[in-house]
Structure formats: structure tokens, C-alpha cells
Amino acid sequence: MSHRCGVRQAQKEKTRRALLDAALRLLEDQSLSSLGLREVTRAVGVAPAAFYRHFRDLSDLGVVLVEESLGSLHHMIGAILAGQDGDAERIDATVAAVAEHVRRYPAHIRFIARERHGGVRAVREAIAAELDRFADEVATDFCPRLSAEDWPPEDVRMLAELYVDHMVMTATAFLEAQAEHPGAAGASGAADVEGAVGPAGAADAAGAAGAAGAAGAEDERRVAATARKQLLLISLGRHHWRDG
Question: Are 22 and 43 in contact (CB under 8 A)?
């Protein structure tokens, strides 16, 4: 009996994961408010009734995607804030972490960027709640480093929100830089097509991929440089802040 229960639970989790992944793929080119439940179930190959075994509705699924999308970034940046000494080191580590996160999870970042001000209220509120929680942790990290005389709690919170907003803006900028060069996966993939197109075709593919990769890397460097300067400006302002 326990074995059968385990198999059923594993299948249930597999279907749930498939629904989330299908929705994320479909949301690459549309907003959640325009997505149809049948689109998602058709992509997975299950009946619409099966959807309701996992989610109340599409907004419920969207909230889960919010938790997935921001949860890992939230913890990653929190670890950087706790583990780095010195403004320059924190800035470099934070920008590098955001860039890597966008490279690994572009669909999640695109979803957050689109739905942060989108038409599904529950998802907007979930994003706002995650970002608020992020700002709370950043504020808690900042408190011991700031003079209580110059930094009342509401100003510390304002500073934390500024950092969080900047992280979201930077993630979106990295995403846009990658979108400008969709072939920038690197020339290594050219070897995989040599058998299909021949050595000359593979060489052309390698050249195109290499050019796209170089252009994409340059765009990412520009985004990173701008993000570092902006964070440095915020940091300098923080050191010279006086209330009122």
C-alpha cells in the first residue's frame, strides 16, 4: 500500500511540475491574464479537470511561480549581504550573482518583470510581498552598519527598498541584454550541427554564434558596469546621509 501511495505522490508531483513548466513556457510571449487554463493542460497532455488537483486557478499557479522566481534570488542576495565585507566587494558580488541568476532562469525573471505591474492582482500582491520581505532582510542587515542618530527606521527601510528596486531593475536589464542576442549560447554548439550541415556550414554557425556571444557578453559588461556605478552612487549617498 505504501509503495502505491509513493508512486501516486511522485506522479502527482511530476504533473504539478509539468503544469508549472508549461505555464512558464507559454508566458514567454504573453501575460498571465491572457493565458488560458486549457492552453496549459493541453501543453502537458492532461484533462482540464486534472489542473484543479494542483491549483485553485491560474492565479494560484502564478503565485507559486512568483515564489519560485524570487525565492532563490532572495536567499542568494541575502547570503551575499551577510557574507561580504566592504562596499566594493558587496557590489561586485551582488551584480555578478544577479547576472548569473538571469542566465540560469531567464523565463522566471521575464515573468516577474511582466507581472509585477500586470493584470492579475493575486500575482502582483505576491510579488510585492516577496520584495517587501527582501527589503526587510536588507534593512535588518543594514541596521548595525548605520548610525541610529542619522538613520531612523523609516529611512533604513527606504534605503533597503532602493537596493531591492535596483536589483529588480538590474535583472531586467541583464534579461534585455540577453534577448538582444538570442544566438549567444556560444560557439560550442556549432560542433553539434557539423554532421547535419557539413564542416563549412558548421564553421559559419560557429562564426555566427561566436559573434553573437561576443556582442552579448559586451552588452552584459555594459549592464554590469552601469549597475556597479549606480550601486556605488547609492553607497556614497548612504555614507553621507543626514536626516532632515
Answer: yes
Residue from 89, 87, 109 nearest 98 by CA: 109
Burial of residue 209, with CB atoms counted within 10 A of its CB: 0-12 exposed, 13-18 middle, 19 or more buried: buried
**Burial grade of 244 (CB within 10 A; 0-12, 13-18, 19 or more):** exposed
Q: Could you tell me the pTM of the whole model? A: 0.81
Distance of alpha carbon 56 from alpha carbon 60, whole angstroms: 6
- What nine digits make up the cell of 194? 557539423
Task: Provide, rounded to the nearest whole percent, the portion of the chain with pLDDT above 70.
Answer: 82
What nine digits make up the cell of 162?
A: 532602493
Query: Shortest CA distance to 127 belongs to which of 51, 54, 91, 73?
Result: 73
